[in-house]
Amino acid sequence: MDLDTQLTVELASVVSAARRRATRDGDRQVDTAHLLHGLLESDPAVRDAFDGGPQIARLLGYLVQRSIGYGLQWHGTVEDSGAVPLVTEGGVPGWSPAAAAALDGALDRAHARYATRAGCLDLLAALVDDPESRAVEVLRRASVDTGRLAARLDRCGPGPS
């Protein structure tokens, strides 16, 4: 089944933006930081899950600096958080193992509530679930309490996006 048919329109737009950002930055794979960047830029419900404007500004500041400073240590490397075994065959072409696992986690979260499509908050929750991902590294550097964010996402539910 095509991935885009399993995502809300909003999340499909985020995934497309992450793919474009990875290509533009010269990265071999879409990683969880690309996905986080797309979520923050695209979805007001995702921004509302955080502790206000200053926290969002810090997060976007780190993510924007990715190709000119912060994040350069990632350039040309595969994101493998260790949360899932590194897949050498049958992986998702163009996606880091952690990003592919996050998309699977978003779909699992949607299916658990009997939804046919995963939304942006589903993906944000899945990103936060992997403590070793690049997305969580960015969140921590921006002083986001990921445990509190995860609890907030569990309480507020998936929303329509």
TrEMBL record:
This is Peptidase. It comes from Streptomyces natalensis ATCC 27448.
